[in-house]
Amino acid sequence: MSSDPKFTPVKGTNISQKVADQIESAILNGGIQPGNRLSSERDLQTQFEVGRGAIREALQALKQKGIIEIRKGVKGGAYVKKMEIGNASESLSLLLKQNKVPIDDLVEFRDAVDQTEVILASIRGDRQEKQRLVEMAMKLSELSTRSDDPDVDAIKAIDREMNMLLAQMTKNSVFEWIKNTIQMSIGSYDSLLYESANYRDKTIDNWIKTAKEIAAGEPLKALSRCSYHYVLLQSCIKDQELGKTESNDVKEK
Amino acid sequence: MSSDPKFTPVKGTNISQKVADQIESAILNGGIQPGNRLSSERDLQTQFEVGRGAIREALQALKQKGIIEIRKGVKGGAYVKKMEIGNASESLSLLLKQNKVPIDDLVEFRDAVDQTEVILASIRGDRQEKQRLVEMAMKLSELSTRSDDPDVDAIKAIDREMNMLLAQMTKNSVFEWIKNTIQMSIGSYDSLLYESANYRDKTIDNWIKTAKEIAAGEPLKALSRCSYHYVLLQSCIKDQELGKTESNDVKEK
DNA sequence: TTTTTTGAATGGTACGATCATTTAACCCGT
DNA sequence: ACGGGTTAAATGATCGTACCATTCAAAAAA
């Protein structure tokens, strides 16, 4: 028939979850194309060697996520939905899993959001928040210069905190939401900046200046610092792609 | 005890959907507070007078939406989750249903997105798209001036199309996604501009000028037009809400 | 050939039984 | 009386079977 993905039987508890994971994985990894039909519930029941209820719950979850559609009758069953931009109930992160969104697009979008955020944060952030932002920037610097082998994970964590604080300072919950969503999806790329010592120093230095401009209530100056952050990021990503063939001589632990 | 929400029995097909709707409604309307516990599956089964499978599927859907959490054992059951900004699997529209997002925040966010969009559209839109944008703007004008009683719904439809085209012209799928999501949530407020003849004329006139600036590849001029659109919208909303005077003083150009 | 009927495939619902997990109550030795 | 271990009840998780509702294609009838 169309496809026999050879699902592997599952046992134990959380069965419906495991089943859903296997199916979702098969879909997202391209094993099953949009428009394709999964086996019937009764077939899946035998493939996974579980009860039908578990299958139904798994399908229900996937349907809720918006990645399958369920039809009744002959030729019915679970059909893989074409992921449309426009389904408001589907999350941005799900869109990213589908590889429908080039990472560059996301970086660009984040850039736009960040620019607005630094402006709003400069205007609306209270003194306490501004002070905390500067403190965190200084801590970044401290972590980076204290030893030859800085704790990169700690640095990334603080970077993330600073970004969330920035979003908070806008006093706009939508910015908080979108920032968090982006952060969860883009994190790996964004933290490239902290992997190499060269970019790390520049980035942290820029963070400090950005924080100070925000604290000083200078939106436009902060804005230009923010732009520089993305210049760095773009450059860093470019370097990364160029050095893809040669072995990684980056000493990271 | 906690509460007895008195769910009404359901019959027919799509039962699990109806059950889920009733429960979600009870939660969103505040009938059940975060932290509260729903009855056990077996109790709900009798309350709704349906099979247990239907209840489980409904709860599965709500769990997937992230609005309940399910625990096992004694004292187990479905607990209403506190909706946190930060759950990436929850959708923006769901956030809005919870009234956790002031509409002003959303308008502000949309403003920021739009500003970037007009700039990108000016730069990246091809000639065909730019021409189409101007054509649609002219059609808006035509629809508005043709009679004393313009077809407001048609105008709104074109406004929506123009917005989506604008997003397309950015050549960035994230902007398309976010634009559509916002559009679906903000639509009612945004179309206020077309209800009264006064704002309608100004808005359409501004749309035309915006489209022309974009077509001419003048990002900065288009940007200022875009800002004016939101000045109009803010003013319009303010007129609508006769009561709040000082709190919203966001008029900045 | 066209229309109608029929039947098989499949999702939707219901009911009941059993397993697994969690919590609270109970019991017992010190 | 107290602390720790044991037991029992509540509840979700799973399985299985049966039956209904819907759909579609093939067979039958016109």
Features of the shown structure:
homodimer; 253 residues; mainly alpha; Arc Repressor Mutant, subunit A; Four Helix Bundle (Hemerythrin (Met), subunit A); 2 domains; two-stranded antiparallel sheet; 10 helices; 3% strand; DNA-binding
Supply the number of structural domains of chain A.
Answer: 2
**Uncertain ranges of chain A:** 245-253
Structural class of chain A: mainly alpha
Q: Please estimate the helix content of chain A.
A: 55-70%
% residues in beta strands of chain A: under 5%
> CATH top level of the largest domain in chain A?
Mainly Alpha
Main beta-sheet annotation of chain A:
2 strands, antiparallel
Largest interface: A-B, 39 and 39 residues
**Which superfamily, in CATH terms, is the homologous superfamily of the largest domain in chain A?**
GntR ligand-binding domain-like
Report how far the terminal alpha carbons of chain A are from each other. Answer: 48 Å
- Sheet with the most strands: spatial strand order of chain A: 1-2
Q: According to CATH, what is the topology of the largest domain in chain A?
A: Four Helix Bundle (Hemerythrin (Met), subunit A)
What's the count of strands of chain A? Answer: 2
Q: Tell me what the CATH architecture of the largest domain in chain A is.
A: Up-down Bundle
Oligomer, anyone? homodimer
Q: Which H/E pattern describes the elements of chain A?
A: HHHEEHHHHHHH
Q: Give the count of helical stretches of chain A.
A: 10
Radius of gyration of chain A: 23 Å
Shape call of chain A = elongated
Mean pLDDT of chain A: 85
